[in-house]
């Protein structure tokens, strides 16, 4: 892990001002003033794939992929795809190079999942994303509204903007589905891999400049979509493996892929098909229904908004939430029930 003379010279680019002297340095926590920043794009059995920008770590160095391990001093701290990290050691990115991650920068968002709704163990699956793209086929397989509601709750809870992508528009009419979801005011894009990939440009507009996590049940066409968006990605597509009965993705880890034009990122999450919602604070769900929230003023204390005493029924019935009120209330209750595990 020694520096090679060819990689560095005296005028290494220093990307962050030295903090030496600003804080007392603990004996077992080195300051790592020479650490270089990078973005974690994949995680595989304790090995992290980190993208380091051009010129960082040495002004002649190109943009490169650096393999890294977690420094012992980080202990059990989790590092996930999307994390901004600081590296030391061999940051040149040669074939045998292995750097060490010594710091994880504060996260702007975390997408968590629990195995099911009662599982207390939650895992962060992606950091620093700003959009959750929920991929659903209009047919083959049929849309699963409860799964979609569940993903919406996960998005709201993580402060990610949801985007619905409805694939296989060549196979079914989109109108019935859109009618169900219209009251939710979630933006959507309709796609078809036929017809010159209908909807792809529109989808790209939504992805531009953002970090978007793609989730979807097996067979909805998520890999087909990701391959069209990022042609170099080579995500395995196809049906379930006849021999093993499993999909071709065996990894459950996410992978970050940069869009070829522009500065957006697609984070593909094979194996992440749903979210346990055990970590979601029920009280926060109503905050995502600003049209209904004022109606809760008349609720009893600690109202779950899914009980006979809830004031929302009367408020909505009196028309105060507008014509979409009843279906909005229905949606809210669907989400609340998804959270309490009743609907699955
Ligand atoms: N008719 C039609 N078929 C599609 C469309 N998009 C994908 N498919 C087909 O649907 C099947 C599943 O597509 P994939 O992209 O592998 O689906 P996936 O969501 O990645 O599923 P896994 O690979 O199991 O995770 C494949 O046979 C695709 O060719 C579409 O827009 N229209
Ligand atoms: Zn209530």
TrEMBL record:
Transmembrane segments: none annotated. One of its GO terms (cellular component) is cytoplasm. Residues 127-273 form the EngC GTPase domain. It is an enzyme of class 3 (hydrolase). Signal peptide: none annotated. It holds the Pfam family RsgA_GTPase. PROSITE patterns: ENGC_GTPASE (PS50936), G_CP (PS51721). It comes from the Bacteria. Its EC number is 3.6.1.-. Zn(2+) binds at residues 299, 303, 305, 310. One of several proteins that assist in the late maturation steps of the functional core of the 30S ribosomal subunit. Helps release RbfA from mature subunits. May play a role in the assembly of ribosomal proteins into the subunit. Circularly permuted GTPase that catalyzes slow GTP hydrolysis, GTPase activity is stimulated by the 30S ribosomal subunit. HAMAP family: GTPase_RsgA. This is Small ribosomal subunit biogenesis GTPase RsgA. It comes from Knoellia koreensis.
